[in-house]
Amino acid sequence: MSSSTTGLSALGPFVVPSLLLALGSSSGCSPSESNAATMWSGTMDTLANGSVLLSNPRDGIWGSETAWRVIEEVRIGTLEGDGPDMFGGIGSMEVDENGNIYVYERQALELRVFAPTGEHIRTVGREGGGPGEFKQVIGMDWAPDGTLWMVDPGNNRISVFDTSGAYVTSHRTIGNYIISPWPGGFDTTGAFYNYGIDTEAEPEEQFVMVRYDANMEPADTFQVPRYDAGDAFFELRTRNSFWRMSIPFTPGMRWELARTGDIWFGVTSDYRLFKTNLDGDTLRVVSREHESIAVTEADIERELEGFDDFVREGGKVDRSRIPAVKPAFRTFFLDDANRLWVMPMTSNADEGRLLDVFDSEGRYLGRVQLPFVMQRYPTPLFRNGRIYAVTRDDLEVPYVVSARIEMP
């Protein structure tokens, strides 16, 4: 079984756990990370309730000789043609234990499999409602038995395939509601998680995470992190339509289900990430000093380019409601060694090219620069010392990139 990161979402009201944020002296670490601990200049403190608080300085552990580098080795895609490497829209990705890359093409409604070196191996499925056919796949993950589960709410099911591309079976699941990127998957015990809807929640329905047993029957339901962003939208109501546009640079919630069955989350206004169990108990808080970045007029003009239709229909853009300072980070990802990879908010020139890396304890190692602009959707994969991600060229043509992480 190959491990997997899962999706992240921004959902409704959530109160960040109330914790003492004054951090004490440094404490112990696992033997495998003892070298990092001896070089680390941050502070670690354990509260009486067991929560571990890590405060990182702005500079990481890496020096010029030890900093990690990312080397792009394979790029799959083409500007023109009709072959399997011609992508209209990439919905999700997976990688098997042999390094084969599975790409779900959401326009063609098919799964395309490529070798680690980029050659096309096979195409699986097609549009439809029959066995092995797709309608609206939003995510996929590897089960403990080595089969690939593809979540297709358009068909109200999960379709299961083996690594040869053969259809195995299907499981009924929720339809109608779509969360993308998909926030589910398997944990290290083999339990499967998918989202559900709490129709009895007040004052309105809420998304929840559902853990299924071996028979694919719901076993437990858990609340997910929610955040009340307040009035963070420009809105327009007409006789025939309703427009709701997010105000640029407004903070939001990001969260991800970890392979351990825990949840990492943070509000992007602060460089602080929380790890909780599914009962809501805070296990760890990781923060880092950072320098605030002002929102410039050029930033605003660039963001408002996507508001043309809204304005044309009569919508009003109140620039005074746009924050003067950018959020601390855009999003974050987890790798198969439980490290955090945070995409910080940067200047336009570095957009999508920088990642801050934290070890499994939460110590800040340093920043890596990518040789390509990494898209946040579909969710990048960090596996076996490699990054698998989608990038786009100047003509907005999508490509799948496989890059090696050099770790001196």
What does this protein structure show overall?
With 408 residues, this protein is mainly β. The chain is built from 3 helices and 29 strands. The chain has helices spanning 34-39, 297-303, 308-312; strands at residues 8-9, 43-46, 52-56, 69-76, 90-95, 101-105, 110-114, 120-124, 139-142, 148-152, 157-161, 167-172, 185-186, 192-198, 206-212, 218-223, 233-237, 242-246, 253-257, 263-267, 272-276, 282-288, 329-334, 340-344, 354-358, 364-369, 381-383, 386-392, 398-406. Strands 1-19-20-21-22-3-2 form a 7-stranded mixed beta sheet, with no helix packed on it. Strands 4-29-28-27 form a 4-stranded antiparallel beta sheet, with no helix packed on it. Strand 14 (192-198) and strand 15 form a beta hairpin. The protein is globular. The protein starts with 7 loop residues before the first strand and ends with a strand. The relative contact order is 0.19.
Largest sheet: number of strands, sense, barrel closure: 7 strands, mixed
Low-confidence stretches: 1-32
Number of helices: 3
Strand order of the largest sheet: 1-19-20-21-22-3-2
Helix amount, in percent? under 10%
Number of strands: 29
Give me a quick take on this structure.
The protein is mainly beta and 408 residues long. The protein is built from 3 helices and 29 strands.
List the helices and strands and how they pair.
Elements: E1 8-9, H1 34-39, E2 43-46, E3 52-56, E4 69-76, E5 90-95, E6 101-105, E7 110-114, E8 120-124, E9 139-142, E10 148-152, E11 157-161, E12 167-172, E13 185-186, E14 192-198, E15 206-212, E16 218-223, E17 233-237, E18 242-246, E19 253-257, E20 263-267, E21 272-276, E22 282-288, H2 297-303, H3 308-312, E23 329-334, E24 340-344, E25 354-358, E26 364-369, E27 381-383, E28 386-392, E29 398-406
Parallel strand pairs: 3-22
Antiparallel strand pairs: 1-19, 2-3, 4-29, 5-6, 6-7, 7-8, 9-10, 10-11, 11-12, 13-14, 14-15, 15-16, 17-18, 19-20, 20-21, 21-22, 23-24, 24-25, 25-26, 27-28, 28-29
